[in-house]
Amino acid sequence: MRAAPFRILVWTVVIFNIVFLGLPTVVIVAASFTAGDMLTFPPEGLSLRWYARLAGMREFQEALLRSLYVAAICTAFAIPAGTLAALAMVRHRLRFARTLQLYFLLPFTVPLVVSGIGMMYVFGEAGVLGRLWPVGLAACAINLPFMIWSVSASVNRLDPDLENAAANCGATPVQAFFSVTIPALMPGIITGALLMFILAMNEFIVSIFLVDARIVTLPVWMFTSIRNIITPDLAAVSVVYIIFALVSIWALDRWVGLDIFLRSR
How many beta carbons lie within 10 A of that of residue 82, not counting itself? Predict the structure, then answer.
């Protein structure tokens, strides 16, 4: 008899969490299909007019392409940097390993506004402020711990005997690295790369310090649009982000497996 109240309590908490986490997404998706001129819920009828407007909006298309470019730059730099850093910190006895671990926590302790101002000064002194690729580098620097942690989980599960067997078969260290180590670390690399790509796509605070009105990324474009008036086309943009997240989860499940990903956390 005592188990029944406890089970009810557990399911009540679970249902509350599901509703609490999912309700904002349901509201914004439903609002994006409204036939009215204002962002309302429940929607005033159903229509695809805002998606049609978004498809023909040149500013949205250019901002989306810029964000994809920034995310690609971030991911391209994060994969080798995060993979090699994870291998060095886990497999080798570094003299300042503890200091490095604390250093990689700085992006989570330093406010992003401070990071944005610092990067604006650095890139400004380098004469590259106002270009897109520094935004990708900035997103990589801020979110790199996610890549390192993801790959580190795979490094901890890597059997050193596999590399020793490759060496015994005559493979050079470089050959063993690319034919044995990298394939074994691929689940962590793919997971980290997807995380870095999505985080770079969503990066706003640092981006706003590094871009100007001519090359705004999608989050900055959304922010400047919200300052004027909130219209349902912004809900449609939010659905685009949701689609990116769903595609990433699908890719993670297909290439890595959600069960492997969850166990690595």
Answer: 28
Residue given tokens 């297909």 in the structure block = 254
Residue 194's Cβ-side half-sphere holds a number of Cα atoms within 13 Å equal to: 21
Residue 234 phi/psi, 5-degree rounding, is -70, -30
Alpha-carbon distances, residue 111 vs 89, 106, 114, 118 (angstroms): 25, 9, 5, 11
Q: Which two tokens stand for residue 165?
A: 């067997």
Backbone torsions φ then ψ of 127, nearest 5 degrees: 75, 20
Distance CA 142, CA 69 (A): 17
DSSP 2: -
Q: At what angle do helices 133-157 and 112-126 cross, to 10 degrees?
A: 120
Confidence check: pLDDT of 263 > 60: no
Taking a C-beta distance cutoff of 8 angstroms, is the pair 167, 156 a contact?
no
Q: What integer pLDDT is reported at residue 74 of this predicted model?
A: 93
Closest CA to 72 of 187, 192, 200, 214: 200
For residue 71, the model assigns a pLDDT of 92
pLDDT of residue 229: 65
202 neighbors 219 (Cβ within 8 angstroms): yes
The dihedral over CA atoms of 209, 215, 216, 218, expressed in degrees to the nearest 10, equals: -130
Handedness of CA 7, 10, 14, 17 (dihedral sign): positive
pLDDT in tens, 150-167: 888 888 887 777 777 877
Q: How far apart are alpha carbons 116 and 220 in whole angstroms?
A: 14
What's residue 1's pLDDT?
46
Q: What is the mean pLDDT of residues 52-57?
A: 80
